[in-house]
Design brief:
alpha/beta, UDP-n-acetylglucosamine1-carboxyvinyl-transferase, Chain, 2 domains, four-stranded mixed sheet, globular, binds shikimate-3-phosphate
Length: 450
């Protein structure tokens, strides 16, 4: 498991042109939600295309600990026999969510209005992340929590015995916080209302509706107002998880910067609350097309075609796009390093509280590899070196962060000299087949010495 075993240093060398098809795994956000809502429905939910990464497997185990029957049927097919809204039992032991902020925050919400107590922990990265953003709104339902200083894990959550519905305005653009409140609202009587000034990924709202809950979304003064009617009986569903746009970002980016590449990345989730990176890359002049756009299981999908793009230009990424590409700034900064001119990424302070401080982690690693980066509290700017012109040659720290690890491996695929990361193990949290998939396409990775 990431962060708990021996580090796996890895070297990434200049890749051969990336050709063929990159079939990336299922969407992490949707996979967590499918397991959790499946566990809160009455009867059997069937899931295909589940992401079988460590983060999601932790959520599957957690749902078992709360009383659901969760079975791996093989080949990405899973079955969840749910216990119904308010039906969670008390876990016998500490619930370990590994590296998964989404897992722990959503599960805390889902159990917060059931009169049971659960204690949560995670790996070193997750134990350093703030949970106050979830425990504050949960307290409004009547939920009690007790964690370490600064609201860190390990943390015990004592579910409210007589929950009251809540009206809550999100103080930051966070789909995890929004989802925790909505999931807690499921077992509260009456209507729980979340005001969302900046739209974030809406998989929870979509899936809640799919399970039969009443969720109404209105726009008031530019904010999304989401009203959930509590205590529904959720009906089990058949869910086909689309492939993850946040994972697709890596082969797409690599194809844009590795000379001679021409890659198809099929069936990628194109939910507008998630697809910001692909529009940004096109704004930069990337040769990236969306083919065969269609709807699958309530989510829009498309096949992405990415070709080597030597004419990309740096841009100012619109700050209002941040929430729709929040996990993609690390890999965008790698593409920006191979564009001409400066790329400014502003309005992104949330990057400082992800699996690592992603502005600091990327800035440090890019600078070590010969790229000029300036940064402030909520912005950073990368000076592009032009196609093929990034020096590379350095070893960087991935800081227990899967997306930092994959970003620097992509940098090494197109830099002049090889790039080494200190630990590739965290990649298994979200994209367990990353190395095999990228090697098959043209990547050249090699174990390094400690
Ligand atoms: C996620 C929300 C985002 C994102 C994370 C997944 C989700 O986090 O960074 O990888 O599935 O709801 P925040 O809600 O903290 O922005």
């Amino acid at each position: 498991m990431s962060g708990q075993g021996t580090p796996e240093p890895l070297i990434s060398r200049r890749a051969a042109p990336l050709k063929g098809e990159a079939r990336v795994p299922g969407d992490k956000s949707i996979s967590h939600r499918a397991l959790i809502l499946g566990a809160m429905a009455v009867g059997e939910t069937r899931i295909s295309g589940l992401l079988e990464g460590e983060d999601v497997l932790r959520t599957a185990n957690a749902m078992r600990a709360f009383g659901a029957e969760v079975s791996d049927l093989g080949g990405g097919d899973w079955s969840v026999h749910g216990v119904g809204v308010g039906g969670f039992g008390e876990p016998e032991d500490v619930v370990d969510c590994g590296n998964a902020g989404t897992g722990v925050r959503l599960i805390m919400g889902a159990m917060a209005t059931t009169p049971i107590t659960a204690t949560f922990t995670g790996d070193a990265s997750l134990r350093s992340r703030p949970m106050g953003r979830v425990t504050e709104p949960l307290a409004l339902f009547g939920t009690e929590t007790r964690g370490r200083t600064g609201g860190r894990l390990p943390m015990s959550v004592i579910g409210a015995a007589d929950p009251v519905p809540v009206r809550y305005r999100l103080p930051m653009a966070s789909a995890q916080v929004k989802s925790a409140v909505l999931l807690a609202g499921l077992n509260a009587p009456g209507q729980t209302v979340v005001f969302e000034p900046e739209a974030t990924r809406d998989h929870t709202e979509r899936m809640l509706r799919g399970f039969g809950a009443e969720v109404v979304v209105e726009i008031e003064d530019g904010a999304r107002v989401i009203t959930l009617t509590g205590q529904p009986e959720l009906a089990p569903q058949v869910i086909d998880v689309p492939r993850d746009p946040s994972s697709a970002a890596f082969p797409v980016a690599a194809a844009l910067i590795v000379e001679g590449s021409d890659l198809l990345v099929p069936t990628i989730g194109m939910n507008p609350t998630r697809a910001g990176l692909f529009h940004t890359l096109r704004d930069m002049g990337a040769d990236l097309t969306f083919e065969n756009e269609r709807d699958e299981g309530g989510e829009p999908v498309a096949d992405l075609r990415a070709r080597f793009s030597p004419d990309m230009k740096g841009i100012e990424v619109p700050p209002e796009r941040a929430a729709s590409m929040i996990d993609e700034y690390p890999i965008l900064s790698v593409v920006a390093a191979f564009a001409e001119g400066e790329t400014l990424m502003a309005g992104v302070k949330e990057l400082r509280v992800k699996e690592s401080d992603r502005i600091d982690a990327m800035a440090a690693g890019l600078r070590a590899n010969g790229v000029t980066v300036e940064d402030g509290e909520d912005w950073w700017k990368v000076s592009g070196q032009g196609p093929g012109a990034v020096p590379g040659g350095a070893r960087v720290e991935a800081r227990l962060d899967h997306r930092i690890a994959m970003s620097f491996l992509c940098l090494g695929m197109a830099a002049k000299e090889a790039v080494t990361i200190d630990d590739a193990a965290p990649i298994a949290t979200s994209f367990p087949v990353f190395l095999d998939l990228m090697s098959d396409l043209g990547g050249r990775f090699e174990r390094a010495n400690h």
